[in-house]
Amino acid sequence: MTTALSARPQLRHLTAQLDELKRKGTYFHLRVLNGVQEPVSVYDGKQVINLASNNYLGFCNHPKLREAAIQAIKDYGVGPGAVRTIAGTMKIHMELEEKIARFKNVEACVVFQSGFTANAGTVSSILGKDDFILSDELNHASIIDGARLSRAKIKVFRHKDVDHAEELLKEVANEPGRKLIITDGVFSMDGDIGPVDKLADLADKYGAIMMVDDAHASGVLGRNGRGSIDHFNCHGRVDIQVGTLSKAIGAIGGYVCGSKDLIDYLCHRARPFLFSTSHPPSVTATCIAAFDLLESEPERIERLWDNTRYFKGELGRLGFNIGGVTTPASETPITPIIIGDGRLTMDFSRALFDAGLMATGIAFPTVAEGKARIRTIMTSEHTRPQIDQALEILEKTAKKIGISG
To answer: In what residue span(s) does the Aminotransferase class I/classII large domain sit (predicted)?
Structure first.
């Protein structure tokens, strides 16, 4: 007699693949956060300096966001009780979307349950099998999945290579069907900035749709964190702007900004929007408060960049490979420490944790084979002593396990 706890043979192939990860040294355990997300956090019961979080501006634990969430629960309850298109659209949802649209200088906005579903749901719904997608080779997985779901023909151009993108556009210029150019505003693994302005020039020249995923640019680039479109002064030239509410904004969710017709269409056809319950009121209120803070506390972004410049400079002085040779050079608070070998990278990450530093190792398939790295992310809330201590741990641990740095 079998029980629910018995290992069934139908999934033995998964066990074999996990064993292979362990053999390669890239298997990992999830670190568990005890308490709030802060520059110094407690993971697995151990206090560590945190260089792994997307909490760029410290909003995850901001008192005004906490107050907004609590008040929303009192006013609206804990859940909307339905998908948006049936009975789950609340006044507070509309308030958030209107606020984001004004902030991003567009006609309209729609909020999704995550940044991943915002990308995948948008790309898959606006294109079909007769259309073409021109995508940067290092675009986020959600873009790749959305492109595949659309059934459009996918053309991948070399990373940030605008000339190659144009070559591919010329190849399909006379083909029937729409053409979509898509890029990350900031690339999540290397921290470099996408050539949004130059790709927008191509979109104008060839009549293509222009789309930017601004997940890691929102709250980081542009005036008051308006993103890469503002950074490059490309307002009115990017048809589709995707952003996230789970990084600098400090909560969870994604959004799409653009024309009123685009947003109206997504409300009718984007499957993640149609078939997922809308955001809890507490999360929605938190996001509204966060956008207010972007306007009222711009000094947070200034601190973020001051910390970023200092940290990058010190990593370079210590001799760490932070990109620019075999990988793109970081231009943002995301700074990879390139190790190359997956096993060594994960060993380094574990040794750093033991020494008091949370800095996550990232290996294949998240990045290419031979490009494994420790990805570090600076925030506005790290103090100079905390940064100096993190640098000391990095230097000593690298030497201890034989990594040049």
So the answer is: 47-393
| Neighbouring C-alpha atoms within 13 Å toward the C-beta of 79 | 5
Closest by CA to 159, choosing from 180, 184, 142, is: 184
Averaged pLDDT for residues 242-254? 97
Q: Is 179 a catalytic residue?
A: no
CA–CA gap between residue 17 and residue 35 (Å, rounded): 33
Catalytic residue among 247, 312, 371, 382: 247
The identity of residue 236, as a single letter, is G
- Of 214, 136, 186, 192, the closest CA to residue 338 belongs to 192
pLDDT at 5: 59
pLDDT tier, 405 (very low <50, low <70, confident <90, very high otherwise)? low
Give me the domains of the chain, ranges plus CATH numbers. Answer: 24-53+298-400 (3.90.1150.10), 62-296 (3.40.640.10)
Helix (H, G, I), strand (E, B) or coil at 49: strand
Is 404 labeled as catalytic in the residue annotation?
A: no
pLDDT digits (tens, 9 = 90+) for 122-164: 999 999 999 999 999 999 999 999 999 999 999 999 999 999 9
Please, what sign has the CA dihedral across residues 379, 385, 389, 394?
positive
What are the tokens at 248?
């600098």
H or E stretch covering 343: helix 342-354
Q: Any catalytic annotation for residue 228? A: no
Rounded distance, CA 190 to CA 321, Å? 12
- Mean per-residue pLDDT over the chain, rounded: 95
Backbone phi, then psi, for 311, in 5-degree steps?
-65, -45
Q: Which residue out of 62, 160, 179, 216 is catalytically annotated?
A: 216
For 230, the 3-state DSSP assignment is helix
Q: What is the DSSP string of 115-149?
A: HHHHHHHHHHHH--TT-EEEEETT--HHHHHHHHH
Helices marked H in 151-298 — which ranges?
A: 162-172, 196-206, 228-231, 260-269, 271-274, 281-296
Q: How many CA atoms lie within 13 A of 13 on its CB side?
A: 1
Q: What is the pLDDT of residue 7?
A: 67
Q: Which of 253, 214, 239 is nearest to 84 (CA)?
A: 253
